[in-house]
């Protein structure tokens, strides 16, 4: 059996500082790349533009419980499922900057642009802390290296990504780190409470965090089933469920007015999530007295309790198993979701697809091997540490299954993968090359895992290549629209590329008809109907109902609907037809080569 790696074999005390500097330099480098935030002021995606629009609205006096964003899905506004914690994290430092004279929009833009890199640094530290529970006596800083080189973690954490995904990752790492400690030592009740609080905070950010919370509770449940004294593990499960419930109750009370406390929503923290915590607490409470029965007697009792809790939840909320997708309206389900890249499954059938899957899935295969070895390493089966390995394995398999269905969940996979894989690298160094070469082997393995990602980041594309990769580059268009504001404040624009809506709503004085969100299906359907209309009267009626004064067509393929027939409204406009009352706006040559801009006289 390999001996424990002594502290003298561990990394230099300067290593945490080196990792922080490396992470900071990496984010700084990405921000300076063509298309990066510091290169041209661009945010990462439509979600990031929408987030700072929402924060600006809050700063300018929008109600705390007002989830309608007036600048999108005009004229009615877009209902958003997002919650307020990230808004506050962006607005708080922005307000400090405003106190020193920084213009509000500029302060919010910069605060939003850097909130995810800052959270990524916190996630690296949380990953190290979590890995120490699974790999005692090992240099757990490997978890930070793996999180730094993980493709999904980097993609969602770059400068300009003002989104909540990195915050979900941070909550997942704390949930698993505390949950493992609670499972290893059932006397550490505070760790169980912390795991519940962190899991509840993750669900507050997004119900996607259930991918970590469910394995937490299932892991404690299996520990109740398999441990000699399951009573203590049931009490830990009860504490974790109670902490989960308290945080969710706080979230519901904070996010919703009193008359909506009992409203159930799939995509936003609500009463059904609190009911899940209550059902888990009741299950552990009833299971606790049975914890000293033989395993063969506990198994049917536990199965009955878990099945009863699950059946009650599904009976009350039949859409529960569809998760957030159950909240997508018909228009979004038909027009939007099939074309969203991050909602697509991983592809293994081609070489490109395999390479893409490796980048998105990150360290999962290595983590599986690490856990397989870990179950026999340092006597885990004797000291109770198998409960922590079991929890990480459940989290890994749950997130891996979700990632295979939709690659956006690869970020949820990053947390258990980094924790599980952290201990394998020093173990290989001990077995293969001796204690003096641990760091060398680790760096080699880290580079092997992160090479596709880091190579892509360090090889910055040329400006021309970035422009060529964009269907509808907005730089010249934004400059023109900002210099030619509408005669009437808040005029509405319809763009055939709905991905441009949030950016144009922030950078120009025009409200947008549609944006790529699953609650905005009505606006998406109207936009598609305008573009596909075979009669001018059909399109003009919708434009009038939506109060549209400006029509923007990208000459490249639009990001909504299509392909369009030759007699469609969009095709006729691009061919030179002009409906009564609509005229082409004279713009610069740089704008004209990419867009057709029409205005209602």
TrEMBL record:
Keywords: Membrane, Transmembrane, Transmembrane helix. The chain crosses the membrane at residues 114-135, 141-159, 166-184, 204-228, 240-258, 270-288, 295-317, 353-374, 386-406, 413-432, 438-460. The keyword Transmembrane applies. This is Uncharacterized protein.
């Amino acid at each position: 059996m390999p001996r424990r790696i002594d502290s003298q074999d561990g990394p230099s005390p300067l290593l945490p500082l080196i990792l922080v500097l490396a992470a900071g330099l990496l984010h700084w480098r990405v921000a300076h790349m063509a298309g990066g935030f510091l290169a041209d002021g661009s945010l990462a995606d439509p979600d990031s533009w929408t987030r700072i629009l929402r924060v600006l609205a809050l700063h300018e006096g929008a109600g705390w419980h007002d989830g309608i964003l007036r600048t999108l899905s005009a004229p009615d506004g877009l209902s958003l499922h997002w919650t307020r914690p990230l808004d506050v994290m962006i607005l708080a430092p922005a307000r400090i900057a405003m106190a020193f004279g920084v213009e509000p929009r500029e302060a919010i833009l910069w605060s939003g642009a850097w909130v995810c890199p800052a959270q990524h640094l916190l996630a690296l530290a949380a990953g190290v802390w979590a890995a120490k529970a699974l790999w005692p006596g090992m240099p757990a800083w490997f978890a930070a290296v793996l999180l730094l080189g993980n493709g999904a973690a980097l993609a969602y954490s770059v400068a300009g990504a003002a989104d909540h995904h990195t915050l979900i990752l941070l909550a997942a790492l704390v949930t698993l780190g505390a949950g493992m400690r609670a499972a290893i030592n059932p006397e550490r009740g505070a760790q169980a409470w912390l795991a519940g609080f962190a899991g509840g905070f993750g669900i507050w950010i997004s119900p996607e965090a259930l991918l970590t919370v469910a394995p937490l509770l299932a892991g404690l449940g299996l520990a109740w089933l398999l441990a000699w004294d399951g009573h203590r593990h049931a009490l830990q499960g009860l504490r974790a469920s109670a902490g989960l419930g308290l945080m969710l109750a706080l979230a519901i009370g904070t996010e919703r007015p009193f008359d909506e406390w009992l409203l159930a929503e799939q995509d936003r923290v609500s009463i059904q999530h609190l009911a899940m915590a209550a059902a888990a607490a009741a299950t552990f409470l009833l299971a606790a007295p049975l914890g000293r029965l033989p395993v063969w007697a506990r198994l049917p009792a536990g199965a009955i309790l878990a099945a009863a809790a699950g059946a009650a939840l599904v009976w009350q909320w039949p859409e529960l198993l569809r998760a957030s997708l159950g909240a997508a309206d018909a228009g979004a389900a038909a027009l939007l979701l099939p074309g969203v890249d991050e909602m697509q499954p991983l592809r293994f059938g081609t070489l490109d697809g395999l390479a893409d899957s490796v980048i998105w899935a990150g360290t999962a295969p290595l983590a599986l091997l690490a856990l397989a070895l870990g179950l026999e390493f340092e006597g885990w089966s004797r000291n109770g540490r198998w409960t922590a390995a079991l929890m990480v394995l459940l989290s890994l398999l749950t997130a891996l299954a979700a990632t295979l269905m939709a690659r956006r969940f690869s970020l949820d996979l990053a947390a258990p993968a980094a924790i599980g894989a952290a201990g394998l690298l020093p173990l290989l160094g001990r077995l293969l090359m001796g204690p003096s070469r641990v760091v060398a082997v680790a760096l080699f393995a880290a580079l092997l895992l992160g090479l596709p990602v880091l190579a892509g980041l360090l090889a910055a594309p040329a400006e021309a290549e970035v422009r060529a990769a964009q269907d509808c580059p907005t730089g010249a268009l934004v400059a023109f629209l900002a210099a030619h504001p509408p005669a009437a404040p808040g005029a509405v624009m319809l763009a055939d590329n709905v991905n441009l809506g949030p950016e144009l709503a922030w950078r120009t004085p025009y409200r947008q008809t549609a944006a790529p969100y699953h609650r905005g299906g009505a606006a998406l359907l109207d936009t598609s109907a305008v573009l596909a209309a075979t009669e001018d009267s059909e399109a003009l009626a919708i434009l009038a109902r939506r109060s549209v004064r400006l029509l923007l067509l990208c000459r490249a393929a639009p990001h909504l609907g299509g392909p369009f027939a030759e007699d469609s409204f969009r095709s006729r406009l691009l061919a030179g037809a002009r409906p009564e009352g609509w005229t082409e706006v004279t713009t610069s040559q740089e704008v004209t080569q990419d867009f057709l801009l029409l205005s209602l006289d």
